[in-house]
Amino acid sequence: MSQQAEQMLDRHRETLDQAVKAIATRAFWTPYPESLKKYPEEAVKAAPKRFEALLKQHYALKVPSISGQVGSEVSPYGFELEVTYDQPEQGALIAAMQSAMPAWRDAGAEARVGVCLEILARLNDMSPDIAQAVMHTSGQGPLMAFQAGGPHAQDRGLEAVAHAWQAMSQVPTAARWVKPQGKHDPVVMEKRFHVVPRGISLVVACSTFPTWNTYPGLFASLATGNPVILKPHPGAILPVAMTVRVAQEVLEEAGFDPCLVSLVPDTADAPVTKALALDPAVKLIDFTGSNAFGEWLEQNAIQARVFTEKAGINTVIIDSVEQIKPVAQNLAFSLSLYSGQMCTTPQAIYVPKSGIQTADGRLTFDEVAGAIAKAVEAFLSDNDRACTVLGAIQSPATAARIDECRGLGEVQLDSEPREHPRFPEAQIHTPLLLKVDAAQKAAYSEERFGPISFVIGTDSTAHSIELAREVIGEKGAITLGAYTTDDAVAERFEGLAMDVAAPLSLNLDGGILVNQSAAFSDFHATGGNPAANASLCDQAFVTPRFVVVQSRRHARSE
Amino acid sequence: MSQQAEQMLDRHRETLDQAVKAIATRAFWTPYPESLKKYPEEAVKAAPKRFEALLKQHYALKVPSISGQVGSEVSPYGFELEVTYDQPEQGALIAAMQSAMPAWRDAGAEARVGVCLEILARLNDMSPDIAQAVMHTSGQGPLMAFQAGGPHAQDRGLEAVAHAWQAMSQVPTAARWVKPQGKHDPVVMEKRFHVVPRGISLVVACSTFPTWNTYPGLFASLATGNPVILKPHPGAILPVAMTVRVAQEVLEEAGFDPCLVSLVPDTADAPVTKALALDPAVKLIDFTGSNAFGEWLEQNAIQARVFTEKAGINTVIIDSVEQIKPVAQNLAFSLSLYSGQMCTTPQAIYVPKSGIQTADGRLTFDEVAGAIAKAVEAFLSDNDRACTVLGAIQSPATAARIDECRGLGEVQLDSEPREHPRFPEAQIHTPLLLKVDAAQKAAYSEERFGPISFVIGTDSTAHSIELAREVIGEKGAITLGAYTTDDAVAERFEGLAMDVAAPLSLNLDGGILVNQSAAFSDFHATGGNPAANASLCDQAFVTPRFVVVQSRRHARSE
Description:
Two copies of one chain form a homodimer.
Chain A: H1 3-25, H2 41-54, E1 58-59, E2 66-70, E3 74-75, E4 79-80, E5 84-88, H3 90-106, H4 108-125, H5 127-138, H6 142-149, H7 151-169, E6 174-181, E7 184-197, E8 200-204, H8 215-223, E9 228-231, H9 238-253, E10 261-263, H10 273-277, E11 282-288, H11 291-300, E12 305-309, E13 315-318, H12 324-336, E14 348-352, E15 356-358, E16 361-363, H13 365-379, H14 383-390, H15 396-405, E17 410-413, E18 417-418, E19 428-429, E20 432-437, H16 441-444, E21 452-458, H17 461-475, E22 480-483, H18 487-500, E23 504-506, H19 539-542, E24 546-554
Parallel strand pairs in A: 1-5, 8-9, 8-11, 9-10, 11-12, 13-14, 13-22, 14-21, 20-21, 22-23
Antiparallel strand pairs in A: 2-5, 3-4, 6-7, 7-24, 15-16, 17-20, 18-19
Helix pairs in contact in A: 1-4, 1-7, 2-5, 4-7, 4-9, 5-6, 5-9, 6-7, 7-8, 12-13, 17-18
C-alpha cells in the first residue's frame, strides 16, 4: 500500500467509519455541509470569477493518446462556454487503463478507499466552483447547483465508497482451514482471498445532474478496483471534467496512474457512448438518462453489468388531508423545483373525482386541483425567487414539450415564460398543470419530461391505487407520494409501494419534498421497477463490481 | 411472523449464527456431517429399499393446475426409474406463485430464514434417501452421491441462506432521521425499510449435480422472498422433486402456500425452459449447464437477473514439484472422480517440453505424462474401487465423446470400459489421457466434457502461463491448479489467478483435490471469467435478489 494512500485513509478514517455507520442506521448524517455559510466566504465569492476564467480555454486532463478536441457547451442561462476538451483515442485509452488496473487492484481496499476519500474531500473544498459549472451546464438555480452538484453529490459518492468498503471488508484476506479427520491429523489449508475488479467501468453522465448521478457509479467502481471512464453529456462536460482532474491529481499523488479515471467527451453529432459500451473490456456501465438508451444498453451491452436510472411516471395519490394549504404548498415546491427537470418530479397526481376529505370538510376535485395551481402561482409570484427555484430549461426539447403537451388536458395552470434578472437569455418556464380524466391514460402515462404535470380524476382512492399500480408496473416510477389521514389507507399505500417497488413519501406538508432524497438514509430509486434497474445506493449497486479470487495450499508443517 | 416459522428460526438460530460466522472467517465448518456413520444406521441401510419403493410410481407434489405428466428418467446404472411427475400449467402456476408472494414477502426475513433452515434440516435427515436418487440419475458413485448430493449440497444451501440473512440484516427495518435546522427545530422523519423480492425465481438444474448446483439459487431466492420454480434436467428429476416435497411440507406447516416452491419437469423432446425463462414474471434465473444454453439465457432473458455456471477449460500448470508421485496420485484422483463429469475436473495440463525439476532431479515431459497415466492405472486397478470412484457415465453423448476425442493427440492412457459388479448395464469408462503440443490448441481449448484430458507440451512455464491466460480468458475456467517449488513462480500463479479470475489450488499432493470446493470457505467459480457469471456463493449472488423499498413520513409531534 502506497504511503500516500495510507495517509489519505488515516486522514479520513473517521469519515469512513461514520459513513459505514450511517448506511446501517439510515439516520441523518453528512460530512459535507449543504449550507454555503460553512464554506470560506472568499471561495464562495471568488467562484463566479474563477468560472469565468475557465471559459474560452482548453481544459487539460491526462490523456494517453489524443484523437481530437470537442466542446460546445452552452449555458442554459444564455451563453457559450467555449471550453474545449481532448478526446482520447478509444483503443489506446482502454489499453492504458487495462495496464494500470493490476497495480490499482493489488494496492488493496484500504489504499483505494483512501484515494477515493481524498478525492471526495477535495471535491468538497471546491464545491463553490463545481456549483458554477453545474449551474451553467444543467441550468439549475444557484443554490440547487451548489447543494445537489456539490455536497449532496459528494454524499452520494461517499455513500458508494462506504458500501464498497463494507462489501470488501466482508471478504477476509486470509483463512486457515482445518478439517478434522477423526483420529488422523486434520487437513490444514492456508487460503488467501483477493478482491478482483471486473474490468473497465463506464459511467455515462446526464445533463441535468452531471455530478449527483455520476459520483455513485464512479466511486463504487473505483473503490472496488475498476478503472473508470466518465462519458459526460455533450451539454454538461465541465463539472465532470473538473471531477476527473481532481481524481487524476489524487491518483498521481498516491503513486497510481492518473488515467485510472479518464474523461471521454463527445458531441451530439458524433456520439461515442455505444462504441464504448460495446467494448469487450468494458464490464460495468452506469447510466442515467432516457429510457430508450437505457434499455438499449440493458439489451445490447450484455458483456457488462449495466446499472440504469431512466425515467418513469412519478406519482402522487391524494386520498385525504388535514389541511389542503400546506399540502398544496409542498406540491407546488415539488413541481416548480428546477422546472420539473428532476427524475423525481411528480407527473401524475391522482385525486378522486368525488373530492377528498379534510379537517375543514370536503373539497371537490376542482378545488384540489385549484389549490395546487394557486399554491404554484403564489410560490412563483416573486420573480427573483421564481427564477432561483425554477432554474433554466436545460434543453430546447424540454421547452418545446411544454407547448406540445398543452392540448393533452384541460389547462388548470398555464406555463408562462419568465425573464431572469441577470440572464435575460435564459429559457425559464413555470409549470404547466393539466386536468384529465383517468380514462385519458395516453396523456399522463407517458413520461413528459419538464414542468408538465397532470391532476387525474379517478373513481376513488382504490381506483387511484389501481391506476398507479398499472402505470408504475408498466413504466416505473422513481418517487411515489401519497396523502391520507386514514391509517388503514396509509397501510394500503405502503403495500402499493412494495408491490410496485417505489419509495413512498407519506403526507409531506413541510420542509421535505417528494423529489428530495437524502444520501445514507433514502434509497434513491429501488431498481425494482422499469424506471431504474439499480438503486443509489444499496448492496446490489456495489457487490457485482468485483469478484473474489482465492488461492489455497497445504499449510507448511510447523 | 407465523408462530411456526418463529419456532423454526429458534430451533436453528445457533446454526444460522455459526454459518454467518463461517462465511466471514472462511474457516472449516459444517453442521451436516459428510460421514455416513453420523447418520442413523437404519436410515442408511433402508435407503436402497426406500428408493425402490418410489420406482414405477407417480411422485405427487402440490400443483395449482396440472397440464400433463412426464417422467422418463433412466439410471446411468442401467434401468428405468418409471417415476412420473405432474407438469403444471405454466400460466396458472405463475399466477398462483405471484398471489402467494406478498404473504411470503410480508412475513419478513426471520420467518423466511426459519423456513429455509427447517427445510435444510429435514433434507439433511433424509440424506441417505437423496443419495439414492442422486446416484441413480447422475450416475455418481454411492459415496459421492451421498456427500455431494446430501450434506455438501445442504452446506451450499445453508451458505446461501447465511449470505441472504447477512445482506437482509444490513437493511434496518426503521430509522428516525433528524436533520438539524440551525436555530430552528430539526426536521424529523420516521422511515421504514422493506426487503422486497424481485419476482419469480427460476432455478434450472443439471443432470450431474441435481442438488449441489441447485440449492444455492433455491435458498438464496427463497430466503429473500422470491417464489422458486425448480426446472430439473429431464434425466434427473427425482432428487429435485424430493427437495420440492420437503420444501412444500415445511412451507405449509409454517402457514405459507406450498406452491412457493414448485417443480416444473419437462422432457428432452418438449423442453419448457425457454418459455419459462422468457416469462415476464420471471425476474431471477439460476442455471447450471452448457455454455450454449447459458449464453442464450444471458443474451435473451434480459428481463431477469441471470446467474450462470457453465463450463470452461479447467487448467493445471506444472512448473516443478518436490516429488512427482504424490502429485500424480492427486491428479489421478482428480481425473478419475465421477469420470471427469465434474465442472471442476482438469482438462488442460500444461508441462514444459523441456521437463520439470523435482527434488530427485529433472523429469522429462514424457516422464511427467507417464507418471500421471501410471497413477491413474494404479488408482483404478481394483475394479470395485474404480467403479465406486468413476461412477457411471450420465449421458450417451459423453461416452461417445471419448471415442471422438481419441484422435486429438497421442494416446498416453487409453480409456477402457469397466463392468460394475452390481450393475452390469452401467456405462463405465476410465480416463483418456492425450499428449499434445501447445500448438494443437484446437484440441485442448474446446471443452471436452467427460473423462478426457490433455498433457500439453509448452516451451516453458512462462509459456504455460501465457497459454492458460489466453485460453481461460476466452473460454473461462472454474478451477486452476498449479505446481511449483519456487516461491517467485507461485506468486506468478497467484497473479495469473487474479488476471483470469479463477481460483488457484497450489501444490495439491494430499487429500484435497482441485475439483473439491468446500462451502463456507471456498468460493466455487468466481463469476469473473466466461465459465460462470456468478460464484457459489458470494454477496453478489444474493444482493441482486431483492430491492429495498422505503417509506417516510414526518414524525408525529410528541
